[in-house]
Amino acid sequence: MQDKGFRQELVEHALRGWLAGAEKLIVLGVGNELRGDDAAGLLVARALKRFNGERFEAVECGATVEDCIDHAFGEKPSHLLIVDAFPDGSRLMLLDPADLEPQKPVSTHAIPLPLLLEALGKPMDTSVKILGIGVENFGLGSKVSEECLKSVIKVAEAIREAAAFTGLLKVRGE
User: Fold this and answer.
1) Who contacts 65 (Cβ-Cβ below 8 Å, separation ≥6)?
2) d(CA 2, CA 25)
3) pLDDT of residue 104 exceeding 50
4) Where are the domains of the chain?
5) Buried b (16+ CB within 10 A) or exposed e, 88-105
6) Across the strands, what pairs with 86?
């Protein structure tokens, strides 16, 4: 398995560049706690919610990403980051929606994210990225793996650091 710590640094660097000049960031954590590591995005949002403020909001979507994306676009963020588990246990991925194949689901959700964004009519002034956490354990009723939990902590830290670096959030006492 590849060193996800190194990937974390790359993701944080890419997020810093993407967030330069951002006015407001909304992080949508997508996942299903009943399907093991599929909860990764949900757990990232849960870890980040304590930093919610005027220019930063983390939202636990669960498996209902449709409602969360609608909420996010209603808030008119300059930047929207969707964090989700991808069926690839070896890497972290920061993607544009156009990088995903619309005809193939990239997670366990019923509606592939690119199709959903297209259907909801992504606002032209919102920059959207998808942060995929590669996991392998999607079994119904299974627990989140230790490897996934380590990735969740690293991803939440990378997002928090990038948002703090760009002035989107003030890190309160840990």
Assistant:
1) 28, 30, 82, 84, 109, 111, 113, 116
2) 29
3) no
4) 4-165
5) ebebbbbbebeebeeeee
6) 134
State the residue for tokens 């997020």: 15
Residue 119 tokens read as: 């259907």
The reported pLDDT for the residue numbered 22 is 96
Can you say how many angstroms the Cα of residue 94 is from the centroid of all Cα atoms in its chain? 9
Give the pLDDT confidence of 70-95 residue by residue, as tens digits.
888 889 999 999 998 888 666 788 88
The 3-state DSSP class for residue 25 equals strand
Contact 148, 133 (CB under 8 A): yes
Angle at 62 between CA 145 and CA 32, to 5 degrees: 35
CATH architecture of residue range(s) 4-165 = 3-Layer(aba) Sandwich (3.40)
Mean pLDDT confidence for 87-116: 61
Do 4 and 155 meet the contact criterion of CB atoms below 8 Å apart? no
Cα separation, 83 vs 98, whole angstroms: 16
